[in-house]
């Protein structure tokens, strides 16, 4: 098991319960999507597995995170990335005042100068646009370019499992497709495991094997991508297959209490 | 004209010290957003450390030996006063530095006493004379140490891997952590370097005028210098140090007879005027905003 989360409970500031007993698994070489609406607790899960909760005044109340079979619930982020899990947080967490080259250098801080140079070459070959703008401040790159840079940075940490939080946020549909395609290609080439956290369920479903759906701090659906697409509720509420009219919206609220 | 030059050289010598000290201050501010009100005390402790070493060693060696000691001192301060408050409001850390300042002030007087002490021994005399102009040894030493160190640091911050990591952390610590960058260790190093710079400034000052509790007041000069350069600009700190040093010298030459005491107020007046035109300081960075 690459990553397993068991009955995880997370609170912020001691009182706000963000995760209420979440369990999920990512297996070797597998791509898993974690879907759910705003405030479902997806990002809290990302922070928890990356060891970043303390930075957000949060902590794990109960449950376990295991990485490659090792207990990793309360490890610090330096150890966790050392083990091979890299999380790309939401909100394009790159260094805006640094150039793309410098961003990559920062990300590849563990590599030897030669490995770093080779890694950078690889990123720039994959994303030629970044190469053209390699000496501009990253804050001035377009949203798509920033996302590519983030993926490149994540690669330079040499991960075995990659957790990506909302890469589609604020991107045009065309670019979303491109980002998803890139993630998919990378996973296959490098044999990575991928946990893709998304609100854009349609885009995510195209490249994953299995799906978890979260709501209000709990997992409310779990299954392979195929069955998610066939599941009536998941399709309606998260994929927007049919227009959710007023009546359905009320039904949705009613159902929510049951899950 | 020829009577102006000695003033200018003196101004440059002072400016080098201001620059060094402001460099230490700005480095910490930039990396951790902590306004270190104890920077004057760093200088004081550094000067006393140099003095203590100088009791056993020749002065140049004592100055050298004080540097690693100062680095260690900076790390201890970071571990003891800054790290426990990390993640809290920045103001909490700033208040802690004010407390630290008083503690160090008192501590230094307890250990070394309140009286002015002169360093035994002296640096080799590097003063020289060209024609009418006499360049003091003090000026040569100050510039010789401050300029390469300041520019070297600037280069390190711009180009080296360590510098890139410092800048990355200073911009977004959480993002740096997520990449597995050991932020705590690097930030401790930054405090160490800051203390080292303050110590060198303190040592140079001590060589010229002895060590006593009043050295702390040079710490006050740091604020106009750092703000003038742009609080987050390391290069600006160095530049502003020299600018204010020279302006002070000019004021001493021309204005002191008309307006006694004006020189003391001058740095703050200059800052006020510059900030009206350039709110980010001379070399301060503008915020990137994508709309």
Summarize the entry for a quick read.
The complex is a heterodimer of chains A (259) and B (291). By secondary structure, chain A is α/β, with parallel strands linked by helices. Chain A has helices spanning 42-50, 77-83, 100-107, 113-126, 128-132, 143-156, 173-190, 201-205, 225-230, 232-239, 246-258; strands at residues 3-12, 16-26, 31-35, 58-67, 70-71, 85-88, 161-165, 193-198, 210-215, 218-224.
Please, could you describe this protein's structure?
The complex is a heterodimer of chains A (259) and B (291). With 259 residues, chain A is of the alpha/beta class. Chain A has one domain: Rossmann fold (3-Layer(aba) Sandwich), CATH 3.40.50. Chain A contains 11 helices and 10 strands. In chain A, the strands form 2 sheets. Chain A has a 6-stranded mixed β-sheet with strand order 6-7-8-3-9-10, with helices on both faces. In chain A, strands 2-1-4-5 form a 4-stranded antiparallel β-sheet, with helices on one face. In chain A, strand 4 and strand 5 form a beta hairpin. The longest helix of chain A is centred in the C-terminal third of the chain and has 18 residues. Chain A is globular, with a radius of gyration of 18 Å. The relative contact order of chain A is 0.16. The model of chain A has no long low-confidence stretch (mean pLDDT 88). With 291 residues, chain B is mainly alpha-helical. Chain B has one domain. Chain B is 71% helix and 2% strand. Chain B has 11 helices and 2 strands; from the N terminus they run ααααββααααααα. In chain B, helix 9 packs parallel to helix 11. Chain B starts with a helix and ends in a 14-residue tail after the last helix. Classes of the chains: A alpha/beta (259), B mainly alpha (291). The interface between A and B is medium-sized, with 33 and 21 residues.
């Amino acid at each position: 098991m690459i990553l397993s989360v068991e009955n995880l409970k997370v609170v912020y500031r001691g009182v706000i319960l963000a995760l209420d007993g979440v369990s999920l698994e990512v297996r070797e070489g597998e791509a898993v999507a974690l879907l759910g609406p705003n405030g479902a607790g997806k990002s809290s899960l990302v922070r928890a597995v990356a060891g970043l909760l303390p930075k957000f005044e949060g902590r794990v109340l109960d449950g376990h995170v295991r990485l490659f079979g090792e207990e990793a619930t309360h490890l610090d982020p330096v150890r966790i990335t050392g083990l091979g899990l890299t999380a790309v947080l939401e909100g394009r967490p790159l260094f805006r005042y640094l150039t793309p080259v410098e961003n990559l250098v920062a990300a590849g801080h563990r590599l030897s100068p030669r490995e770093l140079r080779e890694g950078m070459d690889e990123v720039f070959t994959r994303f030629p646009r970044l190469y053209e703008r390699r000496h501009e401040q990253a804050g001035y790159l377009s949203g798509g370019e920033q996302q590519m840079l983030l993926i490149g940075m994540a690669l330079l940490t040499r991960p075995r499992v990659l957790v990506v939080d909302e890469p589609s946020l604020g991107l045009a549909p065309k670019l979303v497709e491109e980002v998803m395609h890139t993630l998919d290609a990378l996973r296959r080439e490098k044999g990575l495991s991928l946990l893709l956290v998304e609100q854009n369920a349609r885009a995510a479903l195209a490249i994953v094997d299995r799906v978890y759906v979260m709501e209000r701090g709990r997992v409310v659906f779990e299954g392979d991508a195929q069955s998610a697409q066939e599941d009536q509720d998941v399709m309606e509420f998260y994929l927007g297959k049919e227009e959710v009219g007023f009546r359905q919206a009320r039904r949705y609220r009613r159902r929510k209490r049951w899950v | 004209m020829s009577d102006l030059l000695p003033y200018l050289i003196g101004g440059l010598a002072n400016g080098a010290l201001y620059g060094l000290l402001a460099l230490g201050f700005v480095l910490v501010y930039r990396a951790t957003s902590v306004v270190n009100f104890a920077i004057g005390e760093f200088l004081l402790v550094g000067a006393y450390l140099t003095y203590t070493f100088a009791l056993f060693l020749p002065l140049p060696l004592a100055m050298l030996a004080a540097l690693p000691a100062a680095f260690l001192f900076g790390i201890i301060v970071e571990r003891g006063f800054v790290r426990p408050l990390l993640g809290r409001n920045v103001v909490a850390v700033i208040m802690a530095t004010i407390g630290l300042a008083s503690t160090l002030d008192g501590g230094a007087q307890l250990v070394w006493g309140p009286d002015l002490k002169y360093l035994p021994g002296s640096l080799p005399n590097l003063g020289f004379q060209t024609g009418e102009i006499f360049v003091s040894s003090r000026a040569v030493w100050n510039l010789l140490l401050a300029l390469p160190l300041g520019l070297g640091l600037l280069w390190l911050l711009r180009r080296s891997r360590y510098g890139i990591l410092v800048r990355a952390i200073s911009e977004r610590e959480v993002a740096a952590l997520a990449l597995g960058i050991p932020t705590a260790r690097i930030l401790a190093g930054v405090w160490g370097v800051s203390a080292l710079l303050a110590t060198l400034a303190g040592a140079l000052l001590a060589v010229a005028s002895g060590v006593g509790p009043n050295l702390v007041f040079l710490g006050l000069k740091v604020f106009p210098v750092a703000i003038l350069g742009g609080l987050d600009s390391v290069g600006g700190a160095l530049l502003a140090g020299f600018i204010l040093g020279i302006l002070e010298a000019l004021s001493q030459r021309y204005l002191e007879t008309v307006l006694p005491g004006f020189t003391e107020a001058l740095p703050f007046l200059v800052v006020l005027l510059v900030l009206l035109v350039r709110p980010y300081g001379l070399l301060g960075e503008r915020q990137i905003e994508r709309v």
